[in-house]
Write a structure and sequence with these properties.
It is built from eight helices and no strands. By secondary structure, the protein is mainly α. The longest helix has 18 residues. Helix 2 runs antiparallel to helix 3.
């Protein structure tokens, strides 16, 4: 599962990045433009989204390196996997 997520080159984190920028007071429109600009560059150039974001001054003027690292932490997307598997594989067994 982790390998499949890594195939996105970090683009799965775009929503988390957008929300973090909005929480910091950036308008939704500006935040969307910044995220979209970087996501499209990552996609078209086949580069890692995180490294492109880390080089974007608009974003790094708002978010710290730690905040960016936290946004790009795969564990955010995997945190409920065990619970989901537990529910799925025990459905119907509880009577």
């Amino acid at each position: 599962m982790r390998r499949n997520l890594e195939l996105t080159k970090g683009l799965i984190h775009s929503q988390q990045l957008l929300l973090a920028l909005i929480r910091k007071g950036i308008s939704r429109g500006d935040a969307y433009q910044w995220v979209q600009r970087n996501a499209m560059r990552a996609w078209s150039e086949g580069k890692d989204f995180r490294s492109i974001v880390a080089a974007d001054k608009d974003i790094t003027n708002i978010l710290s390196e730690k905040e960016i690292n936290d946004i790009f932490d795969l564990n955010i997307h995997l945190r409920y996997v065990n619970e989901i598997f537990k529910r799925v594989f025990t459905v119907g067994r509880e009577v």
